[in-house]
Amino acid sequence: MSREIVISVGHGKNASGNYDPGAVSRDKKYHEFRIAREIAKSAADYLQCDLINYDGTRDLSRRIKDVNAGNYGFAAEIHLNAGGGTGTEAYYYHGSPTGKKACDEMCKNVSAALNVKNRGAKVKLNSRGTDYFGFIRQTVPCAVLEEAVFIDCDSDLEKVKTEAGVKTCGEAIAKGIEKAVAENSVYKVTAQSVAARSGAGENFPVRKNLKKGEKFTVSITAKRGVWGRLADSSGWVNLTKGTEKVKK
Question: What is the Cα–Cα distance from 160 to 136, expressed in whole angstroms?
Fold first, then answer.
């Protein structure tokens, strides 16, 4: 299975082609889709992974189709909750240890970062005993659905109304995913020096240089092939140029 990750934005368009806002705030000013897409973008930016439906042009069936066509190993769809509650919760495919771990970590991180209640990792089944959410039930990779906060709870909404709030929330979700699915490996620099860049590509600026003989740990989490993120998040390294994996 591919280890690549994709983040999807919930809602934006329904099966009839009309705008689907998802849930809305009590004053009707804030839409689930519009906030969720910024949280999702923040998560995808952190993970340097694919993001789908930011523009709101894909209904649920199209989002599922895109995920299945992408040869991903892990998929997360971002939503906001509603119904009079408070806090953060996440759903995973029943019987999936990786899904459960990802949901546990996402909820723990969002709860701590935003100071909201941790409602935990959950499974929701339909009357046929299969997973209720189509995004979880019909996608090929391990899939989870994150309900970041309750949009109809004023104190929850306050935490994600701002640019800083959605960034904090998105990065908390991303770090939870990273911890659940990352493969940590130790490498050693064999060249005179190796650049650690701000992103997974030669076009990103150099943050620092690793010296010959220096060992470093990377978390391979995203669709960036030869690139690995340093475990301390200080940069990305091309693992095929001037490095070798340290045998355990």
Answer: 25
